[in-house]
Amino acid sequence: MHTLIAVAHPHPASLTHAVANSLAAGASASGNDTMEIADLSAEGFDPRFTQADLLGHQRRAPFPADVLAEQARLDRADALVLVFPVYWWSMPALMKGWIDRVFSNGWAYDDSSGQGVSKKLSHLPIHLVALGGADHRTWQKRGYTDAMKTQIETGIFDYCGAPVRSSTLLLETDAGDAEVHLQTAYTLGQRIAGETVAAAH
Fold first, then answer.
1. In whole angstroms, how far apart are CA 85 and each of 30, 90, 113, 192?
2. 186 forms bridges with which residues in the sheet?
3. Distance CA 85, CA 9 (A)
4. By Cβ atoms counted within 10 A, which residue in 66, 76, 145, 187 is the most buried?
5. Does residue 59 contact residue 106 with C-beta atoms inside 8 Å?
6. The pTM is what?
7. To which H or E segment does residue 144 belong?
8. Does pLDDT of 201 surpass 60?
9. What are the pLDDT digits (tens) for 87-141?
């Protein structure tokens, strides 16, 4: 089984990257999973939704080559994990742009029939890992948990039919114990690998 971990952070020595690596290590330790980390920043993915993307969306031209390559990478995956720092109570523009361009009409969903939206990603389980600086009290007091659930879980993945299997918040990352977060990520990686293998049988 194959898990794709998409990570969006400009600094390779960041806690976000360390969490992604720890998660990959946990999944690989099961011996049943192969892992790929898509480092969107290091790979230079262009998050800008351009006229070429719009023409693809409208089915007036093929999608750009970089979009097709990312879709092919996702087609090889049995699970997708997004690891990202929380910017303004959502994901970074780089990751949002990756979703804007790659999770496209005709591949992730189809709304051309006039009979409602056809959800095309029911086979791709999603796991979300977000890193934030605030504490749990602030997160709950301001309603950010529900806001992110609406934006990301419902607004993006439910629309495509991709089931969100887990959503993990690693908070107080500026002042907390990094080792605790890394262990949480490692354990999550083990669980994801186990779920992926079980789903295949």
1. 27, 8, 37, 20
2. none
3. 7
4. 66
5. yes
6. 0.94
7. helix 144-148
8. no
9. 998 999 999 999 999 999 999 999 877 788 999 999 999 999 999 998 889 888 8
Q: How far is CA 18 from CA 9, 126, 167, 183, in A?
A: 11, 20, 18, 11
d(CA 31, CA 118): 35
Spatial neighbors of 48 by CB under 8 A, at least 6 apart, are: 97
Question: 155: number of CA atoms within 13 Å, CB side?
Answer: 11
Phi-psi group of 81: left, alpha or beta (phi > 0 → left; psi -120 to 50 → alpha; rest → beta): beta
Domains defined for the chain, CATH in brackets? 2-199 (3.40.50.360)
Tokens 């950010």 locate to 144
| 87: three-class secondary structure by DSSP | strand
In this prediction, residue 178 carries a pLDDT of 92
Encode pLDDT of 39-89 as tens digits: 999 999 999 999 999 999 999 999 999 999 999 999 999 999 999 999 998
Distance CA 60, CA 89 (A): 35
User: How is residue 177 written in tokens?
Assistant: 């114990």
- Bridge-partner residues for 81, per DSSP? 5, 127
Chain centre to alpha carbon of residue 46: 16
